[in-house]
Amino acid sequence: MANTEVEAVDFEPEDDDLMDEDVDGGSPRAPIPKLKSAITGGSSFSAPKKTKGRGFREEATTAEAERNARMSGRFDSLDSEDGPGAERSIEGWIILVTGVHEEAQEDDLLNTFGEFGEIKSLHLNLDRRTGFVKGYALIEYENFEEAQEAINKMDGSELLLQSIHVDWAFSKGPFKRRNMRRRSPRGHRSRSPRRRF
Amino acid sequence: MAETGDENGGANGGEFYLRYYVGHKGKFGHEFLEFEFRPDGKLRYANNSNYKNDTMIRKEVFVTPAVLKECRRIVADSEIMKEDDNNWPEPDRVGRQELEIVMGNEHISFTTSKIGSLMDVQTSKDPEGLRIFYYLVQDLKCFVFSLISLHFKIKPI
C-alpha cells in the first residue's frame, strides 16, 4: 500500500517531464548555454533578454574571439568520477553556510560548527563596502561524515537569531534545473535535457 | 511554464550566468584574471600573469546550486542590474574590466577601465553606479578566491 503510493509519486514527475517536452517541441532545444553564447547576446538562452551595456556594442567579434582563445585551453580540475553528490576538495570537504548574520564573529561559527569535527579552515568574508560579514561562510572539514553531519544538523537552524542554510559547496558534476527549485518530489533524474527557462 | 520567483530580480530562480574579466596588455604580454559561473554550476577561473614565471593558472570545478544561489544573492543585493555603463570610463591602455551577468530575463555586459581606488570612482561621471560596480567586483572576487583556494589550495593572485 505504502509502496504503491511511493511509486505513484515517482511516476508523476515523469508525466510532468513529458508535458514539458511537448511544450518545448516546437522551439529549438536549448542545450547548456556555452560561454560564447552568453557573450553574443544570449542567442542560445531560451528566452529573449533585455540587454544593456557597451559589451554588446563595441568590437564584439574581436572581444569574443579573444575570450574564446582565453577560455578554450585546458582547465585543471581535481580528478573525480562524474555523477551526483558532493565533491571532495584537495584537503577535505567544504560546506557553505548562508544567511550568516552580518555581525557574526569567527568564534560564533567555530563554536557552532566545531561540534561536528575539527574545522580545518574557515572563510568568513566581509562586505567590502560595509566591513560587516557578507552573509556566507565556507568551512572545511577533514572527513565527509563531519561535513555531512554539520549539514544535517545545521541546515535550517538559527545562528544569532537568523535562519541559516548549510549545504555542500562543490559537486561532482553539473546540476540540472530541477535542483534549483523543486516543483514536485522526484526520485530520479529526468531522461532528457531540461528546459532552462 | 511561467517562471515564478523572479520578483526580486531573479535572485531565487531563473537563469544565471556571471563572468568577470580584468586585464591589460603590456610588456609582460596579456595579463588577466577571469572567472565565470555557468548555469550548470561550472565555475571556471583563469589567472595569467607573465611576470617572472609565465604560467597560466586555469581551474574549474562544479559548485552546488547553493553556491550559485549565494552568488545570485550577492548580485541581486548589489542592484547592479539597474546600472548602466554609459558614463563609466572606457577601457584604455591601462586596462579593461568586463562584467557580464544573465539573471532572470536581464542580460548586462558592462565594460570599463581599471579602477585603481575609490578616488577614480568619485571623480567619474557616474560615481553611484561605478561604486556599486567597484564593490560588487571585490565581493565577487573574494567569493571566488575563497572557493578556488579552498578547493585547490592555491593562492589566487
From TrEMBL, chain A:
Record flagged with keyword Hydrolase: no
Biased amino acid composition, Acidic residues = 7-24
Query: Do you know which SMART domains this protein is assigned to?
Result: RRM
Main location per UniProt?
cytoplasm
Official protein name in the record: OLC1v1005356C1
Taken from the UniProt entry, a GO cellular component term is:
nucleus
| Gene Ontology MF, one | mRNA binding
**Basic and acidic residues compositional bias, start-end:** 55-69
InterPro entries reported for this sequence: Nucleotide-bd_a/b_plait_sf, RBD_domain_sf, RNA-bd_8, RRM_dom, RRM_RBM8
Q: Which SUPFAM superfamilies match?
A: RNA-binding domain, RBD
Q: Which GO terms describe its biological process?
A: RNA processing
Residues covered by the RRM domain: 94-167
Arranged from A to Z, the UniProt key words for this protein are: Cytoplasm, Nucleus, RNA-binding
Q: Where in the cell is it found?
A: Cytoplasm; Nucleus
Stored CDD domains: RRM_RBM8 (cd12324)
What ranges does the record give for the region Disordered, renumbered to this chain? Answer: 1-85, 178-197
Automatic annotation (TrEMBL), chain B:
Subcellular localization, per the record? Answer: Nucleus
CDD domains found in the cross-reference section? Mago_nashi (cd11295)
What's the domain of life for this entry? Answer: Eukaryota
GO terms for cellular component: exon-exon junction complex
* Residue ranges of the TM segments: none
Q: Does the keyword Nucleus apply?
A: yes
Which Gene3D superfamilies does the record cross-reference, listed alphabetically?
A: Mago nashi
Q: Does the keyword Nucleus apply?
A: yes
Q: Which SUPFAM superfamilies match?
A: Mago nashi protein
Q: Which UniProt keywords apply?
A: Nucleus
UniProt-listed Pfam families: Mago_nashi
Broad class of the protein's primary localization: nucleus
Biological process GO terms, please?
RNA splicing
Which InterPro entries does UniProt cross-reference here?
Answer: Mago_nashi, Mago_nashi_sf
Q: Which family does it belong to?
A: Belongs to the mago nashi family.
- PANTHER family referenced in this protein's UniProt entry, alphabetically: MAGO HOMOLOG, EXON JUNCTION COMPLEX SUBUNIT-RELATED (PTHR12638:SF0), PROTEIN MAGO NASHI HOMOLOG (PTHR12638)
The protein depicted here goes by the name OLC1v1033200C1
Tell me what organism the protein belongs to.
Answer: Oldenlandia corymbosa var. corymbosa
